[in-house]
Amino acid sequence: MPTASHRVIRQVKRAGHEPSIHGTKLWKSSCLIIDYLHKNPPEHSRTVLDAGCGWGITGMWCAKKLRANVISLDADPAVFPYLEAVASLNGVATTPLVKRFEQLTKRDLGDIDLLVGGDICFWDELVKPVSVMIDKALDAGVKQIVIADPERPTFHTMAERVINKHGGDLINWAVNGSVTATGALLVINNA
Ligand SMILES: C[S@@+](CC[C@H](N)C(=O)[O-])C[C@H]1O[C@@H](n2cnc3c(N)ncnc32)[C@H](O)[C@@H]1O
Predict the structure, then answer these.
(1) Is the distance from CB of 66 to CB of 143 less than 8 angstroms?
(2) What does the pLDDT average to over 121-139?
(3) Which of 1, 17, 22 to mutate for ligand 1's pocket (most ligand atoms within 8 Å of CB)?
(4) Which CATH class is domain 7-189?
(5) What is this structure's pTM?
(6) What are the boundaries of each domain within the chain?
(7) Is the CB of 22 under 6 A from ligand 1?
C-alpha cells in the first residue's frame, strides 16, 4: 500500500487528480477489515462490494486473498486513478463503479456476497445513506456486511440504527503490525 510520497502516487497527483470527499489516502479502518477477514474467513465471498473504496485496498485484498470478483464503488471519480495505481502495484484488478451509496439499487446489490466499507460514515449526512445501503443490501440477500470505523459518533449512530433493525455485532478491533489501528467493526451475518 503506497503512501502519498510513493512515486506512482506522486505521478497521479501531478496529473491533477484531487479527491474531494476524503479519498486522499489509505484510511486505517481498511486494515481493521482486512485483519478481521484474515482471521475470520468469510463463508461467502465470490463477489465483494467495497463501498466508499477510496484507494481501494480492502477490495484488492479480497480480490487477491479471497479470489473474489470485486466492485470498487466510490462517489468521487477522482479516487479511481489512485486505485488503478495501487491495483497495478499489487497485480490485481477490481471493477470500478462511480456511484453514491444512496443510488445503489436492490438490483445492484443482488449478486453481492460480501459488502465491506472502511471509514464511510464520517459525517452526519452519511448516517442515513449508509444505513439505507445496509437495509437494501440485506433485503437483496447480501450474506455478510463488515463496516469499520475509528469510532466516530456518526458511525455509532448508524450502527445502533442498523443493529436495532437487523441485529448484528459491534466488535472492538485493533491491529498492531506495520500498521497500527484501533476501532470498531459492525458485522452483520445474513447467510
Ligand atoms: C474516509 S474515505 C475511506 C476510503 C477507503 N474506504 C479507505 O478505508 O481507505 C471515504 C470514502 O467514501 C467516499 N464517499 C463519501 N461519501 C460517499 C457516498 N455518498 N457514496 C459513495 N462514496 C462516498 C469518499 O469519496 C471516500 O473515498
Answers:
(1) no
(2) 98
(3) 22
(4) alpha beta
(5) 0.97
(6) 7-189
(7) yes
